[in-house]
Design a protein that fits this description.
CATH architecture of the largest domain: 2-Layer Sandwich
Largest sheet: 3 strands, antiparallel
Strand content: 5-15%
Structural class: alpha+beta
Distance between the termini: 41 Å
CATH class of the largest domain: Alpha Beta
Helix content: 55-70%
Number of strands: 3
Number of domains: 2
CATH topology of the largest domain: Ybab, Chain: A
Shape: elongated
């Protein structure tokens, strides 16, 4: 029985094991997020004339615009192409983060966030971190 399962069953003596498991998961998550930040992911618009590069954490690093796009697209089309390329790159980065999280939980499917009583609190923490 895993420490988390034992704790859920009311076996308090397994609390130290639960803490060790949490520490192990936290360390694995920290290593994974460092790896994600170092990873580079690209995405392109539908024509391939605009390419965006993001870190694995979805932080925008670079946008390359082919000179033909500057010639062939008006300002509205060009701005949409940039948005499409950045969106595609960020989607690819999100897939990588999903894989990272899947590896942390042993490949089990992710729980529905609506069923998690901590979701509201975690969302508040994320919002606070985003807004400093």
């Amino acid at each position: 029985m895993k420490p988390a399962d034992a704790f859920g069953a009311g076996e308090g003596e397994e609390l130290q094991g639960l803490f060790r498991e949490v520490e192990r998961l936290a360390a694995a998550f920290a290593a994974g997020t460092r790896e994600a930040e170092e990873r580079r992911v690209t995405g392109a618009d539908g024509t391939g004339r605009v390419v965006a590069t993001v870190a694995g954490s979805a932080r925008l690093l670079q946008v390359r615009i082919d000179p033909r796009a500057m010639r062939d697209l008006d300002h509205v089309e060009l701005s949409q192409a940039v948005l499409d390329a950045v969106g595609a790159a960020r989607e690819a980065a999100a897939e990588g983060l999903t894989e990272l999280l899947g590896g942390l939980n042993g490949g089990r499917s992710q729980p529905d966030s609506a069923d998690n009583p901590l979701t509201r609190h975690l969302d508040a923490i994320v919002r606070e971190a985003e807004h400093g």
